[in-house]
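Tutorial handout. Part one gives the primary structure; part two gives the three-dimensional structure as tokens.
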Amino acid sequence: MKLLLPTEFAAELLPKLLPERYPNIQIAWVDSQGNFDGNPSDAEVYFNWFYLKTETLHKVLVAAPQLRWQQTPSAGVNHILTPAFLERNILLTNGAGTFAVPIAEFVMAYILNHAKLLSKLQTMQADRHWIRSIELPLQEVEGATVLILGAGSIGQEIAKRAHAFGMRVWGVRRHPQPSPQFEKVVGIEEWRSLLPEADYVVLATPLTPETRGMIDATALQLMRSSAYLINIARGAVVDQSALMTALSEGWIAGAGLDTFYTEPLPPDSPFWSLPNVFVTPHCSGFSPRIPERTIALFLDNLWRYQNGICLRNIVDQTIGY
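Part two.
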């Protein structure tokens, strides 16, 4: 069996492809630009590098007509499910879960930054400005309610940390089921009814036709004026025009935004200068441990694939996750 592997992972992968665990393996390599080292024409398995470009994917599809399974490090797969990919009927598995820990930590950073006015305090430090603590509207997070839209692997890790801070944790999931980290989990038909009671609304849902634009003007108007929105999902989950209005006119207190329609966020975007917005450059999932987890997931799936065992993180290509 031939594998088509990312050149960028060569140093980490080669020592771990032990012949006693992965017998009869042949390897060809492809880099992030779609340049091949070796013959990919009979490759059966493709493990792509991070940030897979459409043009690279399509180069691989043309050069490797025998592909049967592709593993991608990303959790989102919308950029892979092109017509050219879908017509090939290739099994796709994603990196769901590998980014959950750093993203969950980042969500708590947004929450604490908002509650404890950390950005304001840093500005005061830079200005050498001291004011009495009673004049600072500091908040506690204990007892606050966080509503997590998307109770999958990332949502579970967020819930675990929020629960540890004494927050009330509610979740939304396509197929709701009880979870020890959540006080309650509801289906997608019920989430709007919870918005008026939430202090923090965290978007951790995949981008699908039913989640695209789900945070619209109606949803934002249902939220408390003191509520804080956090988006670590995809920019298109939010109606950005409605969000701009909500933030400018005080429908909600503020937002921590790691994802946007257009990335990089254009320099002239008003989001940069809104005082109640914390803009971060789609970095919440970054950690030096991500490659380690990504490779471990691929190797586990490769062993499963060779032994006829169901793979982890199989994507339902009809809905995108």
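Part three, for discussion. The two ends are 27 Å apart (CA to CA). The longest strand covers residues 2-6.
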